[in-house]
Amino acid sequence: xxxxxxxxxxxxxxxxxxxxxxxxxxxxxxxxxxxxxxxxxxxxxxxxxxxxxxxxxxxxxxxxxxxxxxxxxxxxxxxxxxxxxxxxxxxxxxxxxxxxxxxxxxxxxxxxxxxxxxxxxxxxxxxxxxxxxxxxxxxxxxxxxxxxxxxxxxxxxxxxxxxxxxxxxxxxxxxxxx
Length: 178
Fold this sequence. Notes:
Blueprint: H1 4-16, E1 21-25, E2 28-31, H2 37-49, H3 58-73, H4 84-92, H5 96-107, H6 111-129, H7 134-140, H8 146-157, H9 161-166
Antiparallel strand pairs: 1-2
């Protein structure tokens, strides 16, 4: 789950299936009690129907935690002294090399590349709102310059930020589709 609407969707499914829960947040749901096998299958099917899944392994859970940590990071300005490896190690209390290895094995992409793709989707979102200049967006997402942001944006999106801002459709990926 990557947004508030995702949380609401999961809460709706749990309520619809009459499954008691204490808390739902990005990437997790705390149920009031263990589910019998039949209920687990019903929940799994309902979640799959809306594009979610029950994480069944510790490894998959760790990958999900990495994604949630990175997505959450984009909701506030990234500090100048930011180091991705330190942030993830501190956030998840794990060695970064282990995190990077598990993530790459599972997702067939490096954490760094995944974070770049997330940042570009965030840039698209901010450009479509038209509230911030490209310079302000670059500063907020800790790019060294607008030129660096523009180069990375064109490499990923296939067009310049200015061209994207001018398009009517503002095609964007869902963060869980990256």
